[in-house]
Amino acid sequence: MRDYKAKIPFYATVSILMLWMVGQLILMFCHWGPQGGDWGHYIALARQCYDAGQWYPMAENIREDNYIFAPGLVNLLIAEARICHGIWVNKWLYLLMNMGMMAMTADMARRMFSAKVACWTLAISCLLYSNWFITLSANSELPFLFLCITGLWMIVFSEDQGKCWHGGSRRWTIGAVYLVAGICMALANWIRPLGFIYMLAVVLFAAMTLKGEHSLRRMVSRGMMVIIGFGMMVAVIGETTRMRTGHFICQSTTGGFNLIMSANDKAFGGVDTQVWQDPSSTAYIQDIKRYDCLQRDSIWRTRAVEWILEHPVRYTWLYLKKVPILFAEDSWTDQRVFPSDQFYYKWRHGEYSSKEVALRLLLKMGKSIPYYVMLVLALCGMVESWRRHDRYGIWLMAVLVAFVMVTCFFPVQPRYHYPVLWILIVMASKGVEMLANISNNIRFVLHLVPHGFRHIQQNNIIFKKK
Predict the structure, then answer these.
(1) Bond before 57 cis per omega within 30 degrees
(2) Rg (CA), the chain
(3) What is the overall mean pLDDT for the chain?
(4) Distance from C-alpha of 223 to C-alpha of 161, rounded to nearest angstrom
(5) Phi-psi map region of 233: left, alpha, beta (phi>0 left; psi -120 to 50 alpha)
(6) Which of 152, 189, 237, 365 could cross-link with 250 by S-S, CB 3.0 to 4.6 Å?
(7) What is the pLDDT, as a whole number, of residue 3?
């Protein structure tokens, strides 16, 4: 009976995972439809370059577009179109990425914490609403996070019990592992310009986990290898683009445009992609066609910094306001099935009433109930990790805080929390384990209480007889 209870997390995880897989296959085979928003933009850029027989960005994109947008993802779509004569394969590739990412996250949880935490990590991942639809759209979040977690998993695996990820000797290969991890982070940065955070996370991991003789020297050497790998890949990507276009571009050039959306008189903390067309806004550029995307980015960045220096209090308030927006809900991935009409943006511009917005928000919050439960459990796991000075838990929390701090410099949407969702899932799993241990301790005490009273009663009877 005790063995059966110990295996309940395993059986529950397998059942939930099988249900999730069946749901994924049904969605894969039954749903086809157009993609809008950023996802449709990626596909349009890929089609433009595919028709021209070139890779992204082309000189035309630099000259005419407002910014270079997720070049790593757009080139992935172009490669799919060239190899498979269409991007129909993308959702199947995303499904494999998602499954691999879930497996690597669970394995890291097992190595850092316990097998039970790993089981709950898989179970919670399958129960989240967003994870049911993430594979249907050509989003940038999934491939970005897959590459980051691949690099992190290699590091955690290699440092665990003195073994490298391929099982060989670690005397020289450990450096190669950190080098490849840096390359993974650079490729992720090519998709979304946040890969450098995970590169720094690898350096922090080495600093927090290495112990013993020559630990400082080993930490420095590992940090240097991941930075070298990151820099090498960035140089290759940038030089390849420079040879085709004359400009060194190794990532998205959306920094200035994003920053100006949070640094103007009408900023509200969210995304307003039409702000550059408003003549009364600081984002408006007269005769914008005269400038290429790099010049526009520089202008927006300069104006945004000037606005921030002139309005530090308001920008700080907007910055703090973005944190709850970032974690507000988790239903963004179903836009592929239920098209989004950007109701909050339209409400800001008077196209929706407050009642209509409230109803849509309630619907989104209803879909996010498992996510809210996960957040509470994650908070419990963080408190437990901090209380016990758990180095792995503290490392995960440091990465989470760093990511949130960088993200909130720019406008946010709830979907922007996805790159750190895996951290919240792992910490929530640790919270489940903590609550389960508390429950077991309470049951143990309650089981002992009757025996304790019986023992006291017997002693009193013996005392009275004497």
Answers:
(1) yes
(2) 26
(3) 87
(4) 20
(5) alpha
(6) 237
(7) 60
